[in-house]
Amino acid sequence: MAKRKIRKISNYIEQEKIINKPWLSMEDLMIIIPTGITALNKFRKSIIKEMEANDEFYFKARPILIPTEKVVEKAHIDVALIRREANKMRKSMN
Asked: Which domain holds residue 45?
């Protein structure tokens, strides 16, 4: 039986850093969307398919980068919540 790699759970500060990026790679998606690799691949491919249908630009080179705006929109990520909680975490650290 193969050992499964256990991913570290990311906190709001790490998620905020990812959301501030203009383009996201697969590793970035793994931080802000807590699902498995297969589901993330399907999610990314669905965004790419939509972008190709609308003749929108994305980086086709490796690694494939997709706009953060599209990920936030399609995954219904609450950016305001992440920013608010990240600020709370920063204040509690000081």
From this structure: 12-93
